[in-house]
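Question: Now follow the chain.
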Amino acid sequence: MLTLQDKNIIITGASSGIGRECAIIASKIGARVILIARNKEKLDTTLSSMSGKGHIVLANDVTDYENLKNILSEIIETDFKCINGIVHCAGREMTKPFFLTKAENFRELLEVHLIAGLELIRFCSKKDYLPEEGASYVFISSIMAELGSTGLSSYCASKSAITSTVKALALELASKKVRINSVEPGCVTTDLLSKRFSKMSSEEVEVIKTQHPLGLGTPNQVANVVCFLLSDLSSWITGTNIVVDGGYSAH
């Protein structure tokens, strides 16, 4: 039975989309969650939909490392005691032709999508914060880590970096009983997708929709897989990237 009972989970990007749904489902199956995002109002909205008690809202930019670590130290040491899992879902959308994409755009997306998650992992994997039974960390990547799309060079670069980094870290952290995986969704109906679609013609949007044999995904469909990876049911899974794309990559 899928359960996260008595597990303490950190979820970044918990104010909307997949991160929000991960927090809601995790709470329904027993987890206590630290929700991280920049917008406190939206985090509070997520919190109002969650089950259970003891969840903590933390309005902070995931790239403001020192401040984030200081606050988390206090939370863990005084209340949570340990961290059983992390979902790094914080993300930004950037659709821009390559010749208009600057070096800083590549750095910005890499910082948010990968490096911020790595800093969280480094921090939470310290001996004092890691439970004896180990932990499970999940990155939200994208099917764009495997494929390509016009105007998404910086986005594809940052997501594909997750794919290879997960494999390396899985080997390095296995001795600590830490598992690390990523999930690669296709197009999911989130605010980020709406922002991307707003820059496209109706014909282009329709093409993308028809490329998903099972239709566009929902945050719930991705969050179910994430919570499986956080749970003990996936105890022999590490270093892998699970595609959840409604058949998009089967073409």
About this structure: Helices lie at 17-28, 40-48, 65-80, 103-124, 153-173, 191-197, 202-210, 219-230.
